[in-house]
Specification:
The chain is of the alpha+beta class. It folds into two domains: 137 residues, no CATH class; 67 residues, no CATH class. Helices cover 41% and strands 30% of the residues. It contains six helices and twelve strands. It has a five-stranded antiparallel beta sheet with strand order 2-1-5-4-6. Helix 2 runs antiparallel to helix 3 and helix 5 packs across helix 6. The longest helix is centred in the middle third of the chain and has 20 residues. The chain is elongated and about 80 Å long.
Length: 209
């Protein structure tokens, strides 16, 4: 998560990076979220959501914060692009300052409503455009676990015909770690292990015949 603060027309980033991570997948989409609160505090983070879903933001509805989101393609495994996210935040920093300067919250007895000046609204629209056009995500170095294991070799995987489902699940973290050390973000590791075990079973059955 990146935390930032906007005060007196200046944007100050308190932390500047989001660790590389895998997002999306089958029926999911990776999403980046930027939130600016009425007091000038803000944050940028990423998450995975079901592709056809959305998250209700009651604070934004009350006008006490503004939220921008942008999604990667649905049903696609992506990873965050750390450098691109950092560059994007620095690019929109002055725009966030304009939004904050032109933001007001109108209070009444039961509800509150946020308003933006013309300049603040223009800056808010620019932020959304930058996020949608940005390269905060990438598919570079993202591989199906089975493909990576085929390339790197199955020798280091203690897989046999008698390996239980629980033992397969215990292998997942170690395989993901080794892939990261090799520079790759892999997905569907458990499915890859079960697929390989199925192939071993077929080969064993063929030998018997």
């Amino acid at each position: 998560m990146i935390n930032f603060d906007v005060n007196d027309g200046e944007f100050v980033s308190c932390s500047t990076s989001i660790p590389p991570q895998l997002l999306g997948g089958n029926s999911f989409s990776g999403e980046i979220v930027i939130v600016l609160e009425a007091d000038g505090a803000g944050e940028c983070d990423v998450r995975s959501l079901p592709s056809n879903s959305w998250i209700e933001n009651k604070a934004a509805q009350r006008g006490v914060e503004i939220q921008w989101t942008s999604r990667a393609p649905s049903n696609t495994w992506v990873r965050t692009n750390e450098d691109a996210i950092e560059a994007m935040i620095l690019e929109i920093g002055p725009l966030l300052a304009r939004v904050h300067a032109g933001h007001d919250v109108l209070e009444n007895a039961d509800t509150s409503e946020g308003t933006l000046s013309d300049d603040a609204q223009e800056a808010a629209d620019e932020i959304k455009e930058i996020m949608d056009l940005g390269d905060w995500w990438t598919v570079d170095d993202v591989l199906d676990a089975y493909d990576w294991l085929e390339q790197s070799g199955w020798e280091a995987v203690p897989l046999s015909l008698t390996t239980s489902n629980e033992e397969l699940r215990q292998m997942v973290d170690d395989i993901e770690r080794r892939a990261l050390e090799d520079g790759f973000f892999i997905y569907d590791v458990l499915y890859a292990l079960k697929s390989k075990q199925g192939e071993m079973e077929d080969e064993a059955a063929a030998d018997v015949i």
